[in-house]
Amino acid sequence: MNSQLSVTPTTKRPLLRLETVLILIGVVALALAPFYFYPIFLMKVLCFALFACAFNLLLGYTGILSFGHAAFFGGAAYFTAHAVKEWGLPPELGILVGVAGAAFLGLIIGFLAIRRQGIYSTMITLALSQMFFFFCLQAPFTHGEDGIQNIPRGHLFGFIDLQEPLYMYFFVLSVFLAGMLLIWRVINSPYGMILRSIRENENRAISLGYSVSRYKLGAFVMSAALAGLAGGLKALVFQFATLTDVSWQMSGEVVLMTLLGGIGTLVGPIFGAALVTSLGNYFATSELPVTLVTGIIFMVCVLVFRRGMIGELYASRLGKKLERRADD
Question: How does 129-164 read in b/e, with b if 16+ C-beta sit within 10 Å?
């Protein structure tokens, strides 16, 4: 973390301009995409992109590595599925149930994890996530290995039929953009500045009088809630929730997405999620295992793009800006 280039308010401007351009291009592309690509695939990308951005809020901006984020993602998928199918709630309320459940799980796991630092905190998140996995395996409402199948999408606000792929896509896109706007607002607020100060030097943040544990727990709960939002959407998109959603492999996959795109960047995890999801879709019918291809790409990224692909682009632009200022 400390090896990264320092960013002053002046040098931050080109990064903000780059990020703004990328976001505007991305929004326009996403609005047009369902007319050229399969909406179901695009919705999968958006769900995992939001999941990766939620994870990045915790790792990239707070410095807490979690190997248990599948508990929030998959837990919300189960909660949403049960609320919609068994309780008959409309999709918007079903997703809120999933988000609330994920936030509650985040409160419990985060409260225990932040008591330790480094690898010990990470292993606590992994252990508690595995406990939740076995709970989902045994709990009656999850239907064990079969999962919850045939989840009805229902009607949004009582009149928008989400069985229509385009309506469902634009609903997912709207929720994704709302989630990204929330993340952007958090990281560019005084609260986000405090989170970054904790990431860079926790002892100094304590010496300045900040309640570090409270801020870390708040970031943990927000990250869990946003991961739950992604999980609830995913359950409605694919109309099922299974143990795969709460497995340790899912936790590892979101770490990979974030690392490939770039930790601590707003759009990096989106790029990483799109790349990993596209590879999984492309090699699904191939004899070449997708995990092998993803692993090779990850090794190349670690060796060549230490900050992630988007992270290296940011660093390159910042470095050129600093060189021009030095020449002047």
Answer: bbebbeebeeeeebbeeebbeebbbbebeeeeebee
